[in-house]
Amino acid sequence: MSNFLESIFAQLQRSVGRVVLREIRGEQFVSVTGRELLDQVSCARGYLRTANLRPGDRCALLAPNSIRWAAVDLALMAEGLIVVPLYSRQSPAELAAMIRDSEPKLLIASDPALGDTAMQAWTGNPAIAPRRVLFDEVMQQRVPASLSISDAPNPRNESDLVTIIYTSGTSGEPKGVCLTTANLTHMLSCTTERLGQLMGQTREPDRVFHYAPFNFAASWILLLSCLSRESVLTLSTDLGKLPDEIRLSAPHYFLNVPTLLERVRRGVEDALSKRTSPIRSLFAKARDAWQHRESGRTRATDTLWFALCRKLIFSKVKERFGPNLRALICGSAPLAPETQQFFLMLGIPVLQAYGLTETTAICTLDDPRVPVEPGYVGQAIRGIELKTADNEEIIVRGPHIFAGYWNRPEETARVLCDGWFHTGDQGEVNARGNWRIIGRIKNLIILNSGHNVPPEPIEDKIAQHLPAAQHVVIVGNGRGYLCAIIAGEVTPLVAQSALDTVNPGLPHYRQVRSFAIVRETFTPENGLLTANGKLRRDAINARFASEINSMYDRKPS
């Protein structure tokens, strides 16, 4: 049986005359066929063979997404080297920490500035600092006569490490997650199977758009899945032009984070609120008709209003995604059920996935052949087991579980017990086998009354009523009640109105009694978000300690 990398090379050999990867540059595509990508891989392999490297050596890859990123990545894996993908927008201190930890022999960067950024915070032994090289240097290497594009990757054992991917680190220092040949071979067999189910019997290649950085596990798995299938993967090169790039690439599907889908929903609703009264009325009636249908209370006029709105309004929204869209895929965090319902109302299924870097990115994934359940992240993928343990913590085992944290045996032992990986996520499963994510165990707020409160569901409810808020953060650990930090251009009147709307539907101990509005933007650069946009709660609590204390010093509302 072929491993994942052999399958990718075989697929590229079958695609020598077909476009497999392309970048959007303005209104144009820069494309490569399977043969041209294999040529680039061969050039990179030629360079690596002159670089005094041995199988098992680490090599860091620091660059935005590009065709050359994919080529160098494939070359490193084909030569038996361990890839350490780094985020091009990571802070210099975090990049230096990851480089010190993994001790790569090479740091391959897309441009000199990025390489300098990665090393400017270096405080380690200069003797073990990685040698910095640029893509240009790697790709200009003449391919040795002994190497041709028909050459398969070097043989690999199932237990061989393929990559060390650093987790985003919501608290503490990021850890290097070690993934093996066996992990990736199993995971790609599952993802390509799911994508085949989504595409059905179509004879054309998958058209896939992609904007998430390849250093994130789920993003990288999608890249490898597309290279394993008959696909055309289009890479974004300008996040400021995503709507135009999506329209131009006309995808069948693409991977999303909840933030983007929430932004699309709010943008559509805001635009419709400014339209003429008949349009606003039609949208309201269609939304009511959808809700009636979902609750099984359909009225006689619902079909008319919904059909009219779908033709006059919803079709215009769908046009933004191009004519081929079959589904959106969403991961990295739970998507608000209201947003998933919104896209379903438009006629766009949103397939949710759940997983961690330690689980080779995926544990569950919605089945495209059956209706999705908003608020749930699908069933366990083939060949793995999920169950809940103490505190409703999700634990999982199977061939996709990572080999351990790089150089951290004690931390590995804390999360891997008797073959089960302890995710740190709280969840529950329903009768259909669909999982719902409640929150993070370590984010639990324990009030001095003894009540345990997961903050994420409350934050999501409040945020739905505060479209101008960048983030809502619930605080109150060890206190008598909950408060909220609200970041963004929100007025106190609007914030209080949101709490007045949400609180009556919550038990008394989960109600938010006060709030503080802060104007500082939360970013990875200022340490308040991780690289993939998750809240660093410890840092937020420390940064806004005075605001938090002030909320508890005054009498709650």
Structural notes for this entry:
It is a single chain. By secondary structure, this protein is an alpha/beta fold. It has three domains: 4-252, 3-Layer(aba) Sandwich (Rossmann fold); 258-323 and 326-441, ANL, N-terminal domain (Rossmann fold, 3-Layer(aba) Sandwich); 444-553, ANL, C-terminal domain (GMP Synthetase, Chain A, domain 3), CATH 3.30.300. The strands form six sheets. It has a nine-stranded mixed sheet with strand order 2-1-10-9-11-12-13-14-15, with helices on both faces. Strands 16, 17, 19, 20 and 21 form a five-stranded antiparallel sheet that branches. Strands 4-3-5-6 form a four-stranded parallel sheet, with helices on both faces. Strand 12, helix 13 (337-346) and strand 13 form a beta-alpha-beta unit. Helix 7 (181-199) crosses helix 8 and helix 15 (455-464) crosses helix 16. The chain is globular and about 70 Å long. The model has no long low-confidence stretch (mean pLDDT 90).
CATH superfamily of the largest domain: ANL, N-terminal domain
Helix content: 25-40%
Count the domains.
3
Ends apart, CA distance between termini: 65 Å
Largest sheet data: 9 strands, mixed
Number of helices, where a helix is a run of at least 4 consecutive DSSP H or I residues = 18
Key phrases:
single chain; alpha/beta; Rossmann fold; five-stranded antiparallel beta sheet; 18 helices; 37% helix; 22% strand; globular
